[in-house]
Design brief:
Layout: E1 3-16, E2 19-32, E3 36-40, H1 47-54, E4 62-67, E5 70-71, H2 77-87, E6 88-91, H3 103-113, H4 118-131, H5 148-160, E7 166-170, H6 178-195, E8 198-203, E9 214-219, E10 222-228
Parallel strand pairs: 3-8, 3-9, 6-7, 7-8
Antiparallel strand pairs: 1-2, 1-4, 4-5, 9-10
The structure holds adenosine-5'-triphosphate (ATP).
Length: 230
Amino acid sequence: MKNVIQLLDVNKVYKTGNNEWVALRDVNLNVEDGEFIALVGPSGSGKTTLLNIIGLMDSPTRGHVVLEDKDVTYLGEKEKSELRNKYIGYVFQSYNLISFLTVYQNVELPLVIAGVPEKERQKMVEEVLQTIPGIYELRNKRPTQLSGGQQQRVAIARALVNRPKVILADEPTANLDINTGKAVVDLFKKIKDELGITIVMATHDLEMLKNCDRIVYIRDGMVERIEKNS
Ligand SMILES: Nc1ncnc2c1ncn2[C@@H]1O[C@H](COP(=O)(O)OP(=O)(O)OP(=O)(O)O)[C@@H](O)[C@H]1O
């Protein structure tokens, strides 16, 4: 199987004043095309830092990030942002929907930013609203009129709309009750199975691991162990 993401000896050191904090130490990880990976670890272990580095929102202090055979570690900002738009969809704990836009407009926004013509946008938004169960009928509502689970589904639709290769999800179930959280993880599994999209999800909730292919345990910025899910 082809690797979509490779992390090679990735280190991240944050400097604040005279203090240094090593957030990631020599992280090596390969993610295969179409895999569903969970990053698990306690608060402060480095999960968000790792997702930000994979998602080209932050750079490692040392080491390399390779996306589909291309070393992207030291690309310029412009190239990184182009890759981000075309390659990666993000899902956050707090949904990050824009409150004065409708569901439809929130999902459409990445396409507006990417300059996709209106006709094509309409087709792509309609398609993704139909792919994610239970949100098509909400398309004219605003985020504040939706439940947490519905908002997260809209955020997932927004992450999917530009047909990314990879979805990065940072604690996507943390604000949801257990059943709604499990439904969101089931949805990731469906997206992986039906669309072949690679998913990397950070979570500290061991109840959310059932659908994952591999579980990467992170502790103190290091990969402690990797387990295959049976
Ligand atoms: N910009 C920053 N400046 C300094 N230290 C930082 C910065 N961002 C993160 N850190 C530190 O790096 C460590 C890893 O943080 P990170 O957010 O990646 O952990 P996490 O596993 O995602 O935690 P949580 O589950 O609480 O979100 C933490 O100790 C954090 O305080």
